[in-house]
Specification:
Elements lengths: L18 E4 L4 E3 L4 E7 L4 H6 L11 E6 L3 H10 L6 E3 L7 H6 L6 E6 L2 E7 L1 E2 H7 L11 E2 L2
Parallel strand pairs: 3-4, 4-5
Antiparallel strand pairs: 1-2, 1-5, 3-6, 6-7, 8-9
């Protein structure tokens, strides 16, 4: 079972220097460029609600899901929810290096990264934050908040 090992990183903090395996093959660094990381677990109802909206984040911000599940279950989740962005694996076998490195407690937790620094942290579902990211239109009828 995953256990939080540190304090949640805040805006302005340096991004941990991690290399994660991609679902489907390859590896990716979490540093460099504008990147939106979305930590999730496939059994989390708020994650199931939130992640499909991230398909709509406009160009200019690369979205990456960070799954706390195994590759097979993660790929099934990606197909079921029709996610269009790459998914990185935060392996239980490696004791969740990314989840622990960012200090997350709840999923979903999103981090907007910019050139190696954390620009914004979002825990759970926040309509206001999703509007700011461009994942939700201001006039859409979606709930204002859901806990992670």
């Amino acid at each position: 079972m995953w256990k939080r090992r540190g304090k949640l990183l805040e805006a302005g903090a340096a991004v941990p220097d991690l290399l994660l395996r991609k679902a489907g093959g390859g590896e990716e660094s979490l540093r460099g460029g504008r990147l939106l990381l979305a930590f999730f677990k496939i059994s989390c109802p708020v994650c199931q609600y939130t992640l499909p909206y991230l398909n709509r984040v406009p160009p200019g911000v690369a979205v990456r899901g960070v799954s706390q599940n195994d590759e097979k279950d993660t790929l099934d989740f990606v197909r079921h929810y029709r996610l269009k962005f790459p998914i990185l694996l935060d392996s239980e076998d490696d004791r969740f290096p990314a989840s622990n490195g960012f200090g997350i407690t709840y999923v979903p937790t999103l981090f907007l990264l910019d050139e190696g620094r954390i620009g914004r942290v979002i825990e759970g579902w926040s309509r206001e934050e999703m509007v700011a990211l461009g994942a939700v239109g201001e006039r859409e009828n979606v709930p204002a908040w859901k806990a992670g």
